[in-house]
């Protein structure tokens, strides 16, 4: 995850009761930290979660990574930029599951990742519940994530921009605008 905004302050926020974690797999009975889940070597392996349901829905995209997706916030607005043909993405979109996790063993570091939007645990965690979403795209839009399908050139320009692509995104039409659903324009 990319922290496009500075956290409000380094002061710790109150721990929410429930955090969210998304996966392409349903029926997971316990999440365990594994070698593929870490931000830096000093921190070690962790389980990621967020108190923000919109942000969690962005991670329903199967195989998401920084080479073809950018996930972040612009002025408090969650956004996902996808380097993919819209129709091709929709054909391959198999959705996934959003899990509710107890927050007991989770904490966040205001200086790492997305700060208070990104919580981690080093302990195994059993989900409280799961909600299946047949489409990651529909789930993101329903949760207010602004989704932008762009070509490789535009994706690279956004990634290289000093303003994290804010000005460029302000000139683009989101999938939300296209559908007339939960559209919130990103402004300069």
General description of the model:
The longest helix has 9 residues. The strands form three sheets. The chain has a three-stranded antiparallel sheet. The protein has 188 residues and is an alpha+beta fold. The protein has one domain: ADP-ribosylation fold, CATH 3.20.170. Strand 3 and strand 4 form a beta hairpin. It is globular, with a radius of gyration of 16 Å. It contains six helices and eight strands. 21% of the residues lie in helices and 22% in strands. The chain starts with 17 loop residues before the first strand and ends in a 9-residue tail after the last helix.
Q: Helix- and strand-based class?
A: alpha+beta
**Going across the major beta sheet, what is the strand order?**
1-5-7
How many domain regions?
Answer: 1
The radius of gyration over CA amounts to 16 Å
Report the sheet with the most strands, covering strand number, pairing sense and barrel closure.
3 strands, antiparallel
Structure characteristics:
alpha+beta; three-stranded antiparallel beta sheet; 6 helices; 188 residues; 8 strands; three-stranded mixed beta sheet; 22% strand; ADP-ribosylation fold
Structure summarized in a few sentences:
The protein is α+β, with helices and mostly antiparallel strands and 188 residues long.
What's the helix and strand layout?
Elements: E1 18-23, E2 47-49, H1 53-58, E3 69-74, E4 77-83, H2 86-92, E5 96-102, E6 119-121, E7 129-133, H3 136-142, E8 146-150, H4 152-160, H5 166-170, H6 175-179
Parallel strand pairs: 4-8
Antiparallel strand pairs: 1-5, 2-6, 3-4, 5-7
